[in-house]
Every structure is written in structure tokens, then in C-alpha cells.
């Protein structure tokens, strides 16, 4: 019994870490810019494709094997720095003053465009990049073997979560961003460069989406359509936690991860259902999600 | 002098252009009386989405290659005469992505606007089930080439619809029989299948067939992850913890390959014997990273299980020369459909004393037809002559062959069509429940 609980806990934690990594950027972008970014799925896929290509390039040279892990953050940064400002300045800034439905449509259109772009660049055949997945060896927990990479995934999620949270709370730029969330007009009146901060926040969200994809690339066959699968899950986590709340995203991911792991081990037929069940229950009790806040409406 | 030179130049240029506009070796054979100038075929396969890379693109490639070679008449016997009775084929490709409703609309467009003579298509069972009644209503000859559901000709009767490959039941019954050959004492089994029609049908048919053959087998875990979930770490833990002797999976595409990548370092294949019913598609892709000791099938005698005939050698060589990788089972299924069409039209043409046949005559020729394919002879033996039967085969992954750039298979066993297909007029479910009456197995 204890063994089963330990396995469920470990599996839940690994899945939660993965969910948190893919949902964090989405939550940040909503928190700061109030944009529900469907193109998040594309940034995730771009991160995965870029990481897979870089890992492949690195692997073909006879270099220090562990250096391959550097390709993961590098891919995330590349996606964020190139795509983030381009999308924010090129498209989203025209959408802020419009109804949220226009933002949804615009980001959905972007999602479709990026889907085709990835196919144009990388084709439809899957790409594999599993060197980082196997390089760290295995760890046994009880009777079950886990790849070291799963622990790296958990570690990355924790570190990235803490870094983002510290950045928001403790740095000057972070505080400015929080002020912007609270009251964009007043921030502007106080001389804050809101457009610059918006680019920064959006690009950070894009880096995080890219990181989610880059961390996932070594575990899967990187192929067209992968972004669409993930966007639903990311939305589930973010809605459950409360739109825009980082703590909420962490708790939401953990809740879904653990309950899903319990379902897979004990009642596998419920696996698909459990995410939506948790969502429904939480939203009935707390319609704004676990960490959601009431919004002050100004007249 | 210069003027003469330029006239000569123009003359040469015109000749070159004329030569270029006539394809080399293009047949000028007389076509039968009443024949159209060309036969337009609508080919519907996934060209985008997750099923494009493993199935859609290999099937489209096979169609391109075969249509070109059939039109040129450059295949081996019995497909060495150009076109269909001398009439060239012309393909219109349609993306199968977008769901069943869109495919119904696309079929209407193909027939009413593109005016295709017949349709070859559909990888998804949902699409096959949706388009078959519409094809019947439109009276357009439709050759389902790859979808797996057994319900099409077991629940209904069609006149214009045919399926030139076997349905999924051969995979499940074949695997149950294969398992009892390689592990006759198996006691505990588990299933890992995608949570939708294909995954559920595959698992249910396999489990029922195995329990009929060996009633003391116990199911210790049934996992149904979401289709295209991508991440399977929890399911792998659950399967490691349940310790089944055998695991059945009908995973395909990215899920199949992702799962294999994820389970290998965790040693699931060392703890349990694993079978992937459509596992053949990953062999040329993952190559040396396919772990040893895994049972793989190819949904029939395709790919590494195909017979060593001149027709198959030609198909594999031509495909490999052009696309740099060997054909997988979806390519074989496409070849079966196109060669079946050619065989049926030409049989009807012969029966019609050289006059171009009517659609009714083609249908009559195709019902219960047997024709040669790279996968061996295919018989339209069940579903009132509209549904093909095929043998099936399984093998176990062995050492990597650097020359072929692919894993070699060991313990290959082929089960004849009569061993794994229900007889004509019998539903698969009933056949399994009754204990496979009339099955002829080696």
C-alpha cells in the first residue's frame, strides 16, 4: 500500500512538473497582458522543434556529451527572443483595446499560421532527440525505475517556478509589471514604459512556452499537431489555479498530476475524465479558480 | 550565314520542345472502344496532422509511384501493360484531416465538381464509416484502403464500396495465436491502448480472442491514455507495478514512438513481453533504438513480412529509390487498392469483349476477385465479395542490421487468411464467441 502511494506520489509529481512547465508561460501572459494566448501551443511546439534540431546538431559533433542539456534553454531563449517581440509588437498590441474575443481569434490565427510554418520548415516526419532523455541514467524508487530525466524535469519546474516568482516579487522590473497588472493607466501616468514592459512580459511567457516544449522534445516524437494537444491541458491548469496566478498554476498542476496518477494506478478508465472532474468541482466551489481574485471594476 | 544559323537554332529548339512535351515512353497504345481519355481518381489520405507522417505520406508516396509506373506500364507482370486497359490514371489528392463531416463534404465535391471516376482513400475508421453510405448514395466506386473497423461490411451491405485490405480483427486474432506460440503458458496480461474506437476495439477483440483460446488468462491492468497524449510516464509506472507477463498495445504514430522512447530506459520490455500490433512503422524510423524482444506486426503481410516475390521486390526497390526509406504497411495498403482497381477493370474489360466496361460490370468483376499485390495474392472473400481477407504475421525484434538500416525480425510466423478472418457472412464478434468455427490454421 505504502509502495503504491509512493509510486502515485512520484508519478503525480513528474506529471505535475511537466504540466506546470507548459502552463507557466500561459499564466504569466494572461496575468500581465490579460491575453488568453492560444498561440502558446505553437510556441511550445516551436521550442520542441528548435530543441530537437539543436540536440541533433550537437549530437553529430564529437563534443562533451552533457553539453547537450544546454541546447534546451538555448532553444527556449531562441524562440522567446525571436518570436515573442515579433508577435507582441506585430499583432497583439493592436488587440489590447479590443474585446477579448478578438485576442482569442488573433492568437488562434497565429496558432494556425505557426502550425503551417513548422510543417514548412521541418516537414511532417517526426524528429527524435532523445539523447538527453537517456544520458542521465535511471533511478529506482521502490520497485519502479524512473529515468533521471524525469527528476530533472521536476527540478527544472521547481527552479523555474521559484525564479519567476522571485523576479515578479523582488526585482524592480517585476514590481513594475505587477503595478501594470493592477492599474495600467496609472502606471502609464507615472511614467512606466508600458509597451516595453508588455514586450518583456510576453517574451518571457514565450521563453517559458518554448522551455516547456524543449524539455518535452527528448521524451517524444516531435511532430506536427503536438501544440494542439498541449494547449487544452495548459488551459485546464491555468483555469483551475485561477487565471494569471503562478501559485495557482503550481497547485493546479499538482492537483491534476496527483489525481491523474491515482486514477491511472487505481481506476485507469477514469484517466481522461479526472482532469475535467477536478476542474468542474473546483469551478463550482470557486468560480475564479483556486487562486483567482475578484477583479475590481472601475467606472 | 547568321540568319541560317538562327533558323537552324529555332528548328532545333522546336524539336526539343516537341520532344519534351511528349513524355518518354508514353503509351500510344490504342484504347478500348468507349474508353474515356483518362480515369480520374480521388485519393484521400492524411496529409496533415498526426496521422500524416506514419500513414498518410507513405500512402500518398505509394500512390504517386504506382500511378506513374502503371501509366508507363513499367511494372512487372501482371501489371506490365500501361494504364488501365491503356487508359491513363490521373490523381486528385485530398487531405483526410478535419473529421468525418468534412470528409463527407469532400467526397461530394470530388464526385460532383471534380467528377472523379472512383475514390481510393480513408485511413481513419470514423471517416470510412461516415463516407461509405454517402458513396453508395452518390453511386461512386469507392475503395477503402486502410481503415481498420470491421463494422463496415458486418453491419451493412454496399454495392459501390469495397475494402481492399483486411479489417483489424486479423491483428487481434493473429496476435492471440502468436502469443500462445511464443508464450504458451502466459497467465497475466495487460492492455495499453489509445482511448478511442481503434484502441478500444483492438484491445477488446484481442482480449476476447485470447480468453477464448486460453480461458485461464487474467487481465491485470487496462490502460487507456488519451489519444496523442505524448507523455506516458504514469502508465509505464502502472504497467511496471502490475507486472503482467504480456502487454498488448495498438499504439501508432507519435504515441507508439514516444512510448517506446520512454519505456526503454525504464526496462518495461525486460519485465513484460510487449506487442505493438502496428509496430512495423517504427522499425525504419527508430532503427537501432528499437529495443530487442518486442513483438511487432504490420496489420497484414506487409513491409518485412511481405513475400519475396518479383512484384514485392520491384515495389520495395522503386519506393526506396525514390523516397529513401522502405514502404510501410500504409504504402502496401495503397498498392493493394490501386492494383485491385486495375485488376477489376481489366477483368471486366476482358469479359466485355474489349469494350470499355460499365460500373456495374466493374463491380461484378471485383466481387470475390483474387489479385496479385506486393503483399501476395489478395482475395475479396468476405462481406459479400466487398471485403478483402489477408494473412497476418508477427515477429520479434532482434539485432539491428546496419546494411538495411533496420532491426531484423526473428520468430516470424505468418497466419493464413482462413486462420484469422471470419468466414463470409459471419460477424467477427460471433466468430470469436463461438470459438473460431471453420478456422484453418497451420
Summarize the structure.
The complex is a heterodimer of chains A (299) and B (442). Chain A has 299 residues and is an all-alpha fold.
Q: How does this structure look, described?
A:
The complex is a heterodimer of chains A (about 300) and B (about 450). With about 300 residues, chain A is mainly α. Chain A is about 70% helix and about 5% strand. Chain A is built from twelve helices and two strands. A two-stranded antiparallel ribbon of chain A has the order 1-2. In chain A, strand 1 and strand 2 form a beta hairpin. In chain A, helix 2 packs antiparallel against helix 3. By secondary structure, chain B is an alpha/beta fold. Chain B contains 16 helices and 15 strands. In chain B, strands 7-6-8-9-10-14-15 form a seven-stranded mixed β-sheet, sandwiched between helices. In chain B, strands 2-1-3-4-5 form a five-stranded parallel β-sheet, sandwiched between helices. A three-stranded antiparallel β-sheet of chain B has the order 11-12-13, covered by helices on one side. In chain B, helix 2 runs parallel beside helix 13. Chain B starts with a helix and ends in a 9-residue tail after the last helix. The relative contact order of chain B is 0.12. The N terminus of chain B is likely disordered. The interface between A and B is large, with 43 and 39 residues.
Structural topology:
The complex is a heterodimer of chains A (299) and B (442).
Chain A: H1 2-33, H2 40-60, H3 71-90, H4 100-122, H5 131-135, E1 138-141, E2 144-147, H6 148-170, H7 172-182, H8 184-189, H9 194-216, H10 226-241, H11 246-266, H12 271-285
Antiparallel strand pairs in A: 1-2
Helix pairs in contact in A: 1-6, 1-9, 1-10, 1-11, 2-3, 2-4, 2-9, 2-10, 3-9, 6-7, 7-9, 10-11, 11-12
Chain B: H1 2-21, E1 39-45, H2 52-72, E2 89-95, H3 100-112, E3 118-121, H4 125-138, E4 141-144, H5 151-155, E5 161-163, H6 169-182, E6 188-192, H7 197-213, E7 218-223, H8 233-242, E8 246-249, H9 253-263, H10 268-271, E9 273-276, H11 283-286, E10 295-297, H12 310-323, H13 329-351, H14 359-366, E11 370-373, E12 376-382, E13 387-389, E14 392-401, E15 406-415, H15 417-420, H16 428-433
Parallel strand pairs in B: 1-2, 1-3, 3-4, 4-5, 6-7, 6-8, 8-9, 9-10
Antiparallel strand pairs in B: 10-14, 11-12, 12-13, 14-15
